[in-house]
Amino acid sequence: MSTTVPEPAKGRLGQMRQAYQITKRSDRRIGLILLLTFLVVGGVFGALGYFLFGDGTIGLIITIVFALLTGLLGVLIVFGRRAEKAAYAQVEGQRGAAAGALQMLRRGWEVKPAVAFNKNQDVIHRVVGRPGIVLVGEGNPNAVRGLIAAEVKKHARVGGDGVPVTGIIVGHGTGEVPLTKLVKHVQKLPKKIKPAQMSELVYKLKALDAMRPAAPMPRGPVPTSMKGSRKAMRG
User: Fold this and answer.
1) Is residue 48 located within the same domain as residue 154?
2) Of 91, 125, 157, which closes a domain?
3) Structural domain tally of the chain?
4) 216 pLDDT exceeds 70?
């Protein structure tokens, strides 16, 4: 059964609306949760503002504004976390989900989806950053292990001494990393190379990529909605 990927919404409000709709599909209580968050956070900080600014006209105005702003901030924080969790839940298990998650890595990371694949559409994505070269595999764990082992050898020859090559398999088995923890796991890897080395390393890897046919992304939707949800929350 095919899955329809919604077109990216234009504008900040459009992105927020789309993120809310996506979240509500798997988190039906999201509206109530956000309302309660606004009331509780706004109420607590409103009471604090009343204590700090007093009950005069100016004090009440400041208190109301303070309560509204803190309530909205609480809503944005809660919504951002639940939207991201819902986006992961909808795409987990689909081919290309790891590539979509890796696109959320910020500056300082070079992500190239589908550097290697097989006929069963098990696929390897590559990330270059301060930890060196990180190869992320998704698909059948047994097949992915073989793909990663082969790619580790190729990339180690290109990277040379001093550039670690780390293999990661996305999944829930022993030694595997769940999709929801993939980005944080990559970000927490030990820093082994300097930023200046990255440009040279990326250039070398492009030469490696040019020596083999382009690997198409697996069939099915690429879950870029995760990136859109994060972008809408960041502002």
Assistant:
1) no
2) 91
3) 2
4) no
Domain of 44, in residue numbers:
12-91
The alpha carbon of 8 is separated from its chain's Cα centroid by a whole number of angstroms, namely 16
- What pLDDT score does 9 carry? 52
Query: 5 in a domain, yes or no?
Result: no
Three-class SS state of 44? helix
Check whether 223 has a pLDDT greater than 80.
no
19 with 52, same domain: the answer is yes
Please, which residues bridge with residue 170 across strands? 177
Per-residue pLDDT reduced to its tens digit, 36-66: 999 999 999 989 888 888 777 888 898 999 9
Q: Is 147 in contact with 122 (CB distance < 8 Å)?
A: yes
Distance between alpha carbon 40 and the CA centroid of its chain, in Å? 29
Listing from the earlier edge strand, what are the strands of the sheet with 165-169?
110-117, 123-129, 132-138, 165-169
* 3 in any annotated domain: no
C-alpha–C-alpha distance, residues 6 and 4, integer Å:
6
Within a domain: 129: yes
**What is the C-alpha separation between 156 and 133, in angstroms, rounded?**
9
Question: pTM score, two decimals?
Answer: 0.67
Listed residues 91, 113, 138: the one ending a domain? 91
pLDDT tens digits, 110-167: 999 988 888 888 899 999 999 999 999 998 888 999 999 999 999 998 888 889 999 9
2 in any annotated domain = no
CA pair distance 164, 100, nearest whole angstrom: 24
